[in-house]
Amino acid sequence: MFNKMKKIFISAMALAVSVMAMATEEAFVKITLAGESGASSIVRLMQDDARTPEYESGYDAEKMMYQANSKSVLLYAIAGSQNLENVMTNQLLGLELGLVTNQVDQNYTLTFSNFSGNEFTIHDRVANQYITVNASTPAYAFSVEAAQVGRVAINDRFVIEAMPTEPSLCFNYNVLEINAHTGEALVVKQGDTEIANVASLPAVYSLDLSAYTGRLVVTLNGQDYQIDANPAVTKVNP
To answer: Are 32 and 75 in contact (CB under 8 A)?
Structure first.
């Protein structure tokens, strides 16, 4: 009886070891947020096929949401209602990254270190820029609005998502957004005044045209498009 139980125990241990061996770490990176005044905060992201997108105690680690002084910043990943410093998930895609500004800085940087595995991209929704995260990713500089200085949580700016592959041209809230027209030429004019001239577009491009009013002509790869910046609003009486 003892030998039989021993065999069962050994078999169970062998199965556990086998399952652990089958788990694969597919990506890892440490991201550091730093304010212009020098304080920093980190988050570690790991994609492992043995984990789940939900918060898992013992694998994910919660972020201590505490700022010691006026220069302190916070960076964290968001899983449901949890703010995390360490994330282990089977799917980084769709993961939101949040931050809390400090009381003095409007300018910040994200730096990437200890990378391994498969590269992925982070979308800065405000700047409409995609950061390709791999072993040679340079520091990414960004600014927040003046009203966001002062320990303001920003949870809707950065998200891990795939770079657009379908060509698109969109004029939304006075921002011209052009995706997946890589290498094509762009000219934006108002009458005879040239506003922008890009000989070779990157994969993701945006141009803020809120300083202009009236009809603009966008020439993309030789094709003209007309758009209206800050269009007049017509009041309709009942």
So the answer is: yes
